[in-house]
């Protein structure tokens, strides 16, 4: 069998891997390349393979850097079957139309034809088949696949492939993005032993996160200090999982009287929509979160929290005097409503911007986080005078320790033959590969884009 890395190689985004085995061509993830723009130029290039010849696509999870080019694949002639877990499919149905709008807008600005059309999007969703964790999917006589819980976002998966070749079973595991447990809502990671080849994410392959309790304390102190200064606390947040987890932590801080009661706005139509999808899939939650939901009649209903789905409601946030908390997308400030709040409050020395997620190189979020004194927003120069804070431990990605643990679990039994570190910037991916090689004696590399391996 052969494995080729078409995206997500020494890059966090654009995940796209081709597995050729048992006479089949199977893609794992068809993600969008993201950087300074929501959709980078690279997305407009043709696929390096013939989309018409692809039999199956397996989706690890519904983040855009894993699903964003799926409709383009349909537009390029793909008519096979897409497999995803039930929540992944439900979130795709919300996230892809949002991607269509954002890429159409950016495409016009960049003078491109649209990346994909409404028909492409509907076409690929019609080909998408929802499955449950641990359900064995037989692709043909020699290849089977199974989804396992990756604990990253709702419905996220490790995908295991078993290929029979020359009387041997070869087992391959794609981690997609791996979670950073414990998390308030999700069930724990469902580790898989007896793996030959591990395709391991490496976003934080060179770093360790602080503990969740330390993160909660930091969240508390950022909010309390921000309120004392009487400013606005802006939190750019990813619509899927991070926002829901953050609301859960804020609710807890309020319950425990660890922060003052101030207005909190969830100013993201996408996050509001996805929050509703979450409430449909409580059987994917951990038992404590499912109980909480049953007792409270909703996970994200607490005093002081206002959802502002419409533009008018969003504008009215400006009339509410500070202190106040505004949670809005996009998570890396590559558009979305957060940039309007940033334009208004970044120059205010009393205000705070708090990053709780990964900021990709080149994004506006990364430039603010790297303390550039001035940034450009909507063509305007905006000085950054507010407090800039970051909490990396709320990340939905495992740190180096979590990734090494994943490797230990996967090598149990028959022993890993090779690890491929993907979905990390060059340095993180290589640092993780070196760590695995030195500490565990397992062959590990960070593959290059378009590199193929016979396994
Ligand atoms: Zn992800």
Which fold name corresponds to the CATH topology of the largest domain? Metallo-beta-lactamase, Chain A
Note poorly predicted spans. none
Biggest sheet strand order reads 6-5-4-3-2-1-22
**pLDDT averaged over residues:** 93
CATH class of the largest domain: Alpha Beta
Secondary structure: helix percent = 25-40%
CATH superfamily heading of the largest domain: Ribonuclease Z/Hydroxyacylglutathione hydrolase-like
* Tally of individual helices: 13
Tally of distinct domains:
2
The name of the CATH architecture of the largest domain is 4-Layer Sandwich
Main structural class:
alpha/beta
Please report the distance between the alpha carbons of the first and last residues: 6 Å
Envelope shape: globular
Q: Major sheet, described briefly? A: 7 strands, mixed
Give the quaternary arrangement of the chains: single chain
| Strand portion | 15-25%
Q: How many beta strands in the DSSP annotation?
A: 22
């Amino acid at each position: 069998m052969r494995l080729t890395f078409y995206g997500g190689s020494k890059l966090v985004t654009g995940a796209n891997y081709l597995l050729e085995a048992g006479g089949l061509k199977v893609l794992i993830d068809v993600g969008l390349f993201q950087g300074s723009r929501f959709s980078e130029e690279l997305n407009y290039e043709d696929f390096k393979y013939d989309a018409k010849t692809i039999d199956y696509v397996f989706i690890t999870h519904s983040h855009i850097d894993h699903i964003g080019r799926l409709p383009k694949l349909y537009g390029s002639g793909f008519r096979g079957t897409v497999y995803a877990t039930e929540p992944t499919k439900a979130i795709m149905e919300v996230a892809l139309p949002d991607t269509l709008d954002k890429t159409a807008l950016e495409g016009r600005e960049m003078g491109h034809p649209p990346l994909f059309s409404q028909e492409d999007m509907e076409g690929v969703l019609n080909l998408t088949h929802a499955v449950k964790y641990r359900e064995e999917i037989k692709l043909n006589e020699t290849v089977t696949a199974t989804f396992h819980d990756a604990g990253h976002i709702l419905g996220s998966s490790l995908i295991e492939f078993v290929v029979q070749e020359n009387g041997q079973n070869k087992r391959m595991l794609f981690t997609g993005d791996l979670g950073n447990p414990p998390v308030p809502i999700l069930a724990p990671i469902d580790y898989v032993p007896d793996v030959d080849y591990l395709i391991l994410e490496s976003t934080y392959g060179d770093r360790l996160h602080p503990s969740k309790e330390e993160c909660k304390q930091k969240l508390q102190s950022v909010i309390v200090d921000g309120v004392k200064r009487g400013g606005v606390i802006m939190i750019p947040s990813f619509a899927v999982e991070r926002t829901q987890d953050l609301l859960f932590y804020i609710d807890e801080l309020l319950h425990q009287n660890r922060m003052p009661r101030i207005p909190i706005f969830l100013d993201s139509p996408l996050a509001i929509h996805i929050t509703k999808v979450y409430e449909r899939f409580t059987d994917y939650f951990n038992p404590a979160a499912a109980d909480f939901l049953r007792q409270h009649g909703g996970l994200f209903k607490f005093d002081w929290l206002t959802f502002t789905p419409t533009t008018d409601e969003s504008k009215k946030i400006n009339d509410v005097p500070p202190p106040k908390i505004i949670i809005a997308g996009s998570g890396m400030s590559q558009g979305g409503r957060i940039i309007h709040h940033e334009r208004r409050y970044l120059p205010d020395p009393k205000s705070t911007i708090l990053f709780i997620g990964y900021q990709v190189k080149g994004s506006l979020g990364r430039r603010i986080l790297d303390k550039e004194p001035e940034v450009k927003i909507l063509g305007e120069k905006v000085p950054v005078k507010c407090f800039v804070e970051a909490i990396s431990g709320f990340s939905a990605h495992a740190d180096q320790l979590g990734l090494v643990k994943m490797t230990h679990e996967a090598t149990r039994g028959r022993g890993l033959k090779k690890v491929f570190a993907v979905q990390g910037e060059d340095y993180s991916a290589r640092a993780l590969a070196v760590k695995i090689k030195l500490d565990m004696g397992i062959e590990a590399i960070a593959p290059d884009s378009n590199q193929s391996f016979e396994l």
